Structure formats: structure tokens, C-alpha cells
Amino acid sequence: MTQGTPSQGQSVSGAELRLDQVVKRYPGQKVPAVQSLSLTIPAGEIVAFVGPSGCGKTTSLKMINRLIEPTSGTILIDGNDIRQESATSLRRKIGYVIQGGSLFPHMTVATNVGVVPKMLGWDAARIAERTDELLDLVGLDPDRYRDRYPRELSGGQQQRVGVARGLAADPPVILMDEPFGAVDPITRQRLQDELISIQRELGKTIVCVTHDIDEAIKLGDRILILQEGARIAQYDTPENILAAPANDFVADFVGAGSTLKQLSLTRVRSLDLNQPTTARVGEEMGPVLARAEAAGDDEVVILDDRDRPVAWPWLRQMRNKTKVIGEPRENLVTLDEAATLNDALDTMLTAAHSKAIVTGDRDRYLGVLDFETVTEHMRSAEREAAENVENAEKAESAESIEDPAPTGEAGHG
Amino acid sequence: MAESTPVAVDEESGPPEGKRGARVITREMVIMLTVPPVLVAIVFGAFVWWRQTAELDSVEANQLRWSELRTLMWEHVQLTVVAAIIVVLVAVPLGIMLTRRQFRAAVPFVVGIANAGQAAPSVGLIVLLFLWLDGGFWTAIWALSLYGILPVLRNTIVGIEGVDPTLVEAGRGIGMTGWMTLFKIELPLSIPVIMAGVRTSLVLIAGTASLACFINAGGLGEVLQTGISLFRFSLMVTGAVLIALLALLIEWLGRVLELVTRPKGI
């Protein structure tokens, strides 16, 4: 549990992003597409913008890199107004990742990734080095892929290159517009996992537009749920949104079974693991049986000489043998500590013991996770989130006595 | 098992290695690139054989001298190529301009004029310009260029407008200027369409150049014209066949050009 917290050791290279009363009104439109959006995105966090189509989430995103110019209001990156410099030089400092990758089909993978560094005037050697580094980061072997054309890649690979292109010039802020919308569910899950791990390494500020609440829950450090006109329905951590939706709109949008959705929020490593009796391959059976009976365990986890679990027999299966024997490791289903509770429950349902063995780096044995621990965790998480929200509301109402016009509620009339 | 490792993946290793290659070359393209030159060579060989063995009277023999034919053919090629170059130099920039936002409203107007230029009978166009500018090579070039401008203009507009707008926005979104998106994205991606227009124009111009002889600008039309006015069947057929062969060859060259200029990767 000591090394479990994800924020530890994370370097933040992102910048704070602030939107202040940003309005976008298109000519001839009665209702603005975005009516007064105010929002602070802390440096180094992923914020997911979600909402029904037409709610103004993409418009809001595109105002950050000035693909759409706001009608009024200011946007600050790291405290600087984005209108201080030209739109093109601003955009070169903001990563932009689009659905499907939107790679330029007549350029090789390497050229695609190197477009922005080239515009910034990097020399060829540095661009080549950076390109290889990024391809490696997104899980593509540079030697194999750098000279290919997008046509020669699968959808998921194109999307990976798209992410690499967005990261190329090491921008503090990255905007993603439905980044994984165009790939199949399995690839999407994989790309999401990879983005989370990349983000843990880089600590960028990422704004990600999606219409998929599950994606938002999985990726977002915070979620911004928008209603029509980009009015903020709720802006909070996924935990709090799931535990205590701010209003009916959010509750409907988050959908039924939101308690179940929390399962994909939590990683196995943040739960307490049981430490049942273990034994080594080759040990005498007698003392092992004695240990297990003393501890009241019905089963024993058997480890090999490198601490990797190899078998998980019931006591009664062991009694008629004289020595502890292992089995091929491949036959035992285990869980990685980075797996979500969703994955954990899945594994438990198929396991003989209704529990799951959890492993760490290089399959080293960590402990056993049981069903009760998971349910207990969910209950307490829910309670905690509800308390958080209550406290926040109290604090807010206390504030609003001093300040009679809270911006967050202004749009509700 | 948990899926959390960001290492290389094989679930989707892309198209098989065998399909790799810089350009897509379809079976149809192979046929279109190999058959015409073979056909031209066969027919031209037959013509040479006939020309060497046939018994010609003095008029025919004079008109069908190899040196005479070579001159006429060279004139024809010059007319075609120079007019085509002018067409490209005018129509491509014009087409690009018309796809810029501020000029987009003018598209129907300009395409309408170009349409009229092509719809007008080519003889009429040539004769009108003759009355205005007097005869000769450059008058013919004027007429041929006007006549051939439409396909290139139209394809330039269609080609650029056909570029996936999300790619253009992607370019803008990562910080390209308007000129950069034009030269690095829009133009390269529309080159196949533009070149198809150039090929169409080349063929149109090569055919129409046979009328240049009416205004004293030479070309293979002269053989045809002499044949018609003197009613020499051999001259008429020779003129028609040589013009057709030249047009076929030019169309083939157009295809080669299309293939060579097509950017890798598309």
C-alpha cells in the first residue's frame, strides 16, 4: 500500500488552464452556443468534458486553441491570456489530438509526428530522436513503423501516432477531441490504459472531450458535465459525481448502476489484501498443513523460487501428498495490482475460490483480494463521497452568503 | 488478466507486410499504362509499312514526305504542350484562389465562363480569335488554352474541396498557417484529381490542335485538310490516324504524369 498512490513521484509538466466567463455566440443565433463558461483546470490533471451532443463541449475545447474565437471572456494558460500571441504560434504550443488520429496520409509516420517540431525550427537530428522516443512511448516500434504511411497502419495504430503527434513538441496543455471514438472497444480500452500510464509519466494538463461517460470516468481526474449552452451541470471528481450527482440531469446522464461504475475507478492496489498461508514448491507438506490449520485457512497459495504464485490448492487436495508441488504457472489466473475492481470482480467470478491472487511487478505475489473487501470498499467510498459533497455544499452556501451571485448556478433559470 | 502494460501490441499489426508500398497501383492502372503504347506502336508500324510500300501519286508523295510529316507532328506537339502549360499555369492558381473563403462566391461565375469556353464550337473560337488577332502560332495557343482550361480549373476546385476537412482543421489545429495547409495538405492531397484534369485537357487540346491549320499555325490537321480539299483518301486516313495516335500517346503520357506526381502514401 505504501507505493500505491498514483500521484506519488509524478512530475507535473502541465500548465493551469483557466476559462473566465467565456461566451461563444454565432451570428444569427438566439441562444449562445456557450453561455458564460468559467472553469479552472489544475496543472497536470486530465479533465473530461462530457455532455449530450450539441451541448457546446467541442466548441469550448476549440476555443482553447482558438480554432474558434470566443465572443467574449478570457482564457488563460499558466496565467497568460491566449490572445497575447498569434493563433498559429499558440497552437504550436498546445497538443491537439483528434478522432481517428487525422494523420496526413501523404506523410510517413515520422513526418506526421515531426510536423510541429519542424514548424518550431528544431534541427533534423533532434526531430528524429524525438520521433523515435514518442513512437516508443505510444507502444510502436520506431524501426518498424517510422517510415510507414498511415494507410499501412490499423485504426488503433493510427490513433497512437495521433497521440504521439499531439505530444511531439512537449506542450504543457493537450486537447483531445473524442480521441478514441473511431476504434473498436477492445482497442479503445487499451488506448485508454496507455493514455493513463503516459499521463502518469508526463503529468500534462489534458482536456478530453468525449460523449462516453464511462471513458470520462476512467480517464478523468475530474469530469465536467455540460448541459446545453455549455452550462456546467457538475464539475467534480468522478468519485463525487458518481456518489452524489448534483441534479437530475447529471443523475440521468451518469446513468443507472453508477455504483457499479465506481468499480472502474479503483485500482486493486489501493485495497487491503489478505495474507493467507503460503508455501514454497518443494517444502515438506506436514508443517505447511499445520500452518494453514493454525491460521484457519482452507487453501494455500504456492509460490515458486521467484515469489511467483504457481498453484492455489484446497487443503484437502494437499493432504495425501508428502511435498508441496507446483503446477505450470500459466494455469493460474492472477490479477495485476493495476487492474480495476471491475477486472477483479470478473476474475473472482471465474475463479474456484471467489477470490483473486494479486501480483505486482514481474508477477511477484502480493496477496489475495476477496469479495468482501471489494464491497466494503465500495460502500465506504460512497459514504465518503457523499460526505465530501455535503461539506462542499456547506462551504459553498457559506460563501454564497458573502457573495450573492455564485457563477455556477447562474445559468439554471 | 489485467491490461495495463503500455508495451508494444500485436492485436492489430496492420495490413500484412506484402501490401506495403509507396503507391497504390491497381490492375486497371497497369492495363491503362501498358496497352496504349503497344497499340500505338502496332498501328504506327502498320502505317510505316503502308507508306513505304504503297504507290503514291506526286501530290500524295509530296504531302507524305517523312520530313514534312515530322515537321507537322512537331508543330502539333508544340501547340499541345505550350497550350497545356499555359492552361496549368492559369487554371491551377485560379482554382486555388476560388477555393479560398473570400472568393468562393465567384465559383459559379468563373466556372460558367470556362464552361462557355468549352461549349463554344472550337472552330468558331479559333476563327473568332483569328479575325481579332490575325493568324499564327500564338493565336492558336490562345484559342487552345481557352478551350482546355475548364477541366483543369474544375478538377482543381473539386480536388481541393474534396480534401477531408478534418485534415485541414487538424493542420490548423497543430499550428499550420493558411499557406502551409494549402501547400502541405490541400495541394498534395488534390494532386491526383488535378492531374486527371490536366490529362483530360491535354487530350482535348491535342484533338483541337488539328484545327490550327485553318489559321496558318500548322499541325497534323494540314494533312487532313489537304486530303479533304484535294479528295485524296490516303491523305485523309493518314491525317486522321496520325492525329489519333498522337492523342493516344499524349493521353498515355498524361497517365504516366498522374502516376509520377501522385504523392506517396495515397
How does this model look, in words?
The complex is a heterodimer of chains A (about 425) and B (about 270). The N terminus and C terminus of chain A are likely disordered. In chain A, strands 6-7-8-3-9-10 form a six-stranded mixed sheet, sandwiched between helices. In chain A, about 45% of the residues are buried. Chain A starts with 16 loop residues before the first strand and ends in an 11-residue tail after the last helix. Chain A is of the alpha/beta class and about 425 residues long. Chain A has two domains: about 240 residues, Rossmann fold; about 100 residues, CBS-domain (Roll). Chain A is about 35% helix and about 20% strand. In chain A, helix 3 crosses helix 4, helix 3 runs parallel beside helix 6 and helix 4 crosses helix 6. Chain B is mostly helical and about 270 residues long. Chain B has a domain of about 180 residues: MetI-like fold. Chain B contains ten helices and no strands. In chain B, helix 3 packs across helix 6 and helix 5 crosses helix 6. Chain B is flat and about 75 Å long.
Offer a quick outline of the entry.
The complex is a heterodimer of chains A (413) and B (266). Chain A is an alpha/beta fold. Chain A is 37% helix and 19% strand.
Task: Please name the defining characteristics of this protein.
heterodimer, A: 413 residues, alpha/beta, Rossmann fold, CBS-domain, 2 domains, globular, disordered N terminus, B: 266 residues, mainly alpha, 10 helices
Enumerate how many helices of chain A there are, as a single number.
Answer: 15
- What form of chain A results from the Cα inertia axes? globular
Tell me the name of the CATH class of the domain at 79-261 in chain B. Answer: Mainly Alpha
Note the main sheet of chain A. Answer: 6 strands, mixed
CA-CA gap between termini of chain B: 39 Å
Intertermini distance of chain A: 47 Å
Radius of gyration of chain A: 25 Å
**Helical amount of chain B:** over 70%
Major sheet characteristics of chain B = none
Name of the CATH first level of the largest domain in chain A: Alpha Beta
Q: Work out the strand percent of chain A.
A: 15-25%
What is the residue-mean pLDDT of chain B, rounded to a whole number?
A: 84
Low-pLDDT stretches of chain A are 1-9, 403-413
Structural class by SSE content of chain A: alpha/beta
What is the strand arrangement across the widest sheet of chain A?
6-7-8-3-9-10
Oligomer: heterodimer
pLDDT under 50 segments of chain B (min length 5)? 1-19
Largest interface (CB < 8 Å):
A-B, 56 and 37 residues
* CATH fold-level topology of the largest domain in chain A: Rossmann fold
